[in-house]
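Here is a typical sample entry:
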Amino acid sequence: MPQIDLKTIAAATLLLGLFTGFYIDNTLLSKPRIETLTQTITEQETTITTLETQLDTLDDEHNTLQAIYDQLNANNVPLSQYTELEQQNENQETTITEKENQISSLQNSVDTLQTIIDEKDADIQDLQDQLDTLQSNYDAVYNPLNIEFTLEDLDISLRVTTDTYPDNTEITGTVYITHTNGAPFTGSFKLSLSKVYLNVGTSSDFYEIHGAEIYNWNSPFVLGAGSYKLSLSEIKDSLGSTVLTSNQLRPYAIYLFEG
C-alpha cells in the first residue's frame, strides 16, 4: 500500500501560504483603492450636480438680462444702459462657458475613475478564481477523507465519511490494518482528536479490529468549533501489547472542521 508523500503536503502548504499572501496583499491594495475611487466619484458627481444647478441659474439670469436688453432697445433707452447690459450679458456668457467646461472636465474624471474601478474589480475576480482553483487542488492533497501509510510491518488506512461536522456530532469512518504480507491484523486501536494549533484534545475508547473496523465516535469535539486533526492514537495486538504508540501515529492525520 503506497505511503503518503509528506514532501508533497509540505510543498502544497508552502504554495498555498505564498499564494494566499499574494492574494491578501493584492486584495488589501485593491479594495481600499476601489473604495477611495468610489468616494471620489460620488464627490465629483455631487460637484457636477451643484455646477449644473448654478448653470441653470445663470441661464435664467442670462435670459432675464436679454429680455431687459431687448425691452430697452425697443424703447430707445440711452446707449449707456445698452452698453452696461451688453457687458453683463457677455460676463454671464463667459461664466456659463466656464461652468460648462468644469462640468465636462469632472465628467471625464468620473469616467476615468469608473474605468479604473472596473479594472480593479476584474483583477480581484481573477485572483479569486485562481485561489479557488489552488484551494481545490490543495484540499485534494492536504485534506483528503482518508490517509494510508505503513509503519513497521503494518499497512494502515484511516478513513472518515466527511471532513466537516455540525456542532458536536459523532465522527464515523473505517480503519483498515493488515500486515505487509496481506494477513489481517487482529487487535485493537484507539483514535485521537486534537485541536489544530493547541495540540490538545481527547481520545476514543479502544475498538476491536480484525483487518477492518467501522467506528462511531460520539461527542469527540470537546474544545468547541474549529479545526481538528484526527489520527490513530494507539494500536495493540490481540494480547493487549502496544504495537504502535501515539507518538508514532500522530504525524498521520486527517484534518476535520467542526462548527
Remarks:
- Confidence is low (pLDDT under 50) at residues 1-29.
